[in-house]
Amino acid sequence: MQLNDTKQTVAEATRTTNHGGGEAFRPADPRLALYKRTINQLLKDSYYEDDTEHLQAIVERFDAATAVDPDFVLKLAAYARQEMHLRDIPQVLLVLAANDDRFKDDSDASLIREWTPAIVQRMDETATALAVHDKLFGGTAPWPLRRGIEDALVEMADAYTLEKYALPRREVTLHDVFNRVHPTPVDEEQEDLFERFMRGDLDDYPDVDPLPSPNTWETVISDRGNTAEAWETLITDEEYSLPIFASIRNLRNMLEAGVDEATIVGHLDLEAVRRAPLYPFRYYQAYKVLQDAGINAPEVERWLEQAVDVSVEHVFDDLGDTFVGVDLSGSMTAALSEQSTLQRKEIGALFGSVLAEQGARVGGFGSDFQTVSTHVDTPVLQRQRAVMGIDEEVGTSTNGWKVLDYLRKEHIAVDRVVLFTDMQIWDSTAWLVDGDRTVRAAFDDYRAAVSPEASLYMIDLASYGDLATPKGYEDVYNVSGWSEQVLEFIGYAEEPAQVIGEIDDFEPA
Question: What percent of the chain has pLDDT over 90?
Answer without folding.
Answer: 47
